[in-house]
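BUG-567 | component: ligand-complex export | severity: low

The export step for pyruvic acid jobs runs without errors, but we want the raw record kept on the ticket for reference. Input record follows.
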Amino acid sequence: MSRSLRFFTPATHPSFLKPALPTFYRRFPLTFSSNRVLVKASSDPNPHILVSGNGAGSATSACVLLSSIEVDAVTETELKENGFRSTRRTKLICTIGPSTCESEQLEALAVGGMNVARINMCHGTREWHKRVIERVRRLNDEKGYAVAIMMDTEGSEIHMGDLGGASSARAEDGEIWTFSVRAFDAPRPERTINVNYDGFAEDVKVGDELVVDGGMVRFEVIEKFGPDVKCRCTDPGLLLPRANLTFWRNGSLVREQNAMLPTISSKDWLDIDFGIAEGVDFIAISFVKSAEVINHLKSYIAARSRDSDIAVIAKIESIDSLKNLEEIIQASDGAMVARGDLGAQIPLEQVPSAQQKVVQLCRQLNKPVIVASQLLESMIEYPTPTRAEVADVSEAVSQRADALMLSGESAMGQFPEKALSVLRTVSVRIEKWWREEKRHEAMELPSVGCAFSDRISEEICISAAKMANNLEVDALFVYTKTGHMASLLSRCRPDCPIIAFTTTTSVRRRLNLQWGLIPFRLSFSDDMESNLNRTFSLLKARGMIKSGDLVIAVSDMLQSIQVMNVP
Ligand SMILES: Nc1ncnc2c1ncn2[C@@H]1O[C@H](COP(=O)(O)OP(=O)(O)OP(=O)(O)O)[C@@H](O)[C@H]1O
Ligand SMILES: CC(=O)C(=O)O
Ligand SMILES: [K+]
Ligand SMILES: [Mg+2]
């Protein structure tokens, strides 16, 4: 077997700096054949080769890293320092914006525990987002992080224009403002706002209430004049670029016009093509109304990107999405409780119960769920959160959501790293408290697969998770090619962390969104005995586990549960 080889020089490979090669490198003699070096005896598709030479530029022997294993640098450090039981289970997402788009800022977030970087196509140009993606990828490649990328579509709900470059505009009580479907030449005329929806002037009626960003500012429609709608400000406040607009008549949301808007606009399709070309890990779809659009997008992605498997996340942020909740979640690869827009479409007091319902349903249907928006809103301006915000974060963690998301706090706030650190410390504390109190909620986990073998996998995971809790094991190991078995274990929310071994980097990045999973990339075989022995020695060599640790292992290939102490 001959392969193309990547050579590491002492300067670029840290292992050379160690006094002795780690045990998982084995020395092989080299065979030379017309400029090519042949190394036999490695089954790894990408063997790491360390070459030693005679000092005159010619290699005499090679050390092959028999099975390279990849885990992100942050997790590795955490595991070494604190052991398995105290690792964070709740995953963290940061929206990237002007406050966090430089490489050093992105790295600070990666070190601070960012599992997924979200880019919001509502803002910035494709070139801007492309640069962010490139920076994240470079950090992953060069520094060993495994930050996944989520692209969020703009969607086509009604929103204001971009204020002609101004970062905000203030509307005072009683002022008359014009909302118009006309596009204006710069500079924007005073007290005039452009609206993105062509039917706007036809659809609103005199007397309607115009609500900006779910209530940050309110207007009353007083006169219609061709494409212009004159409104009086009734609740003063700050207008932000592209702020969402809803209008209300006799106390209820006017929705007819929204039904006319496509969930995925023509601009969204271009953004989706961009996301596919860039190989993002997740695409989050705004203002989903039905399962149909998710199915449509999934088949589009499947036809466009055969080798990469992009997960589609349904954003629950409209009345229609709540009406068709179960079928939407069923069709998607995950869901987001997008409380910002949701709170503009349903009364605010209904948002907490909607959140709980979505989180529970996702877990039952085995789909990862994200709780998003305003978790630490005050930290956009202040270095410390309000007590109410900490309570909100705690509630989402107690609900066992897979992931929490920062929006403005990380995109344009003054304290992105501090906000992330609050999410991290609150998550770890609340998770620990749950384990100590032994408050395993007995959630009914219905069967999700159709085939009998899927049902077996589900039963194995439920039993393995239960055994892990009762025996107080140190970790669950799962060997999974597609990631499915890992997600089934995650769904059980066991007390110990789940070490998920998977063969591809893309599955590994995707698993980064799911509760309690510590994903490793490792090439493994169908022989569980040898997989286990290899993983034990690899993890031991890196100081991540030690002899005597109690482990339960399950795998995609072999439907069994193994309980053992690390030799
Ligand atoms: N790429 C970006 N460029 C500039 N500003 C950004 C960018 N991404 C986010 N922001 C800023 O951060 C704020 C919060 O981001 P967030 O992603 O929550 O957007 P949003 O406008 O509230 O829309 P959505 O409903 O999609 O979340 C935005 O209102 C915007 O001011
Ligand atoms: C995240 C998002 O889109 C919202 O909260 O509206
Ligand atoms: K969006
Ligand atoms: Mg939204």
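Assignee comment: Attached the raw record above. The longest helix spans residues 416-437.
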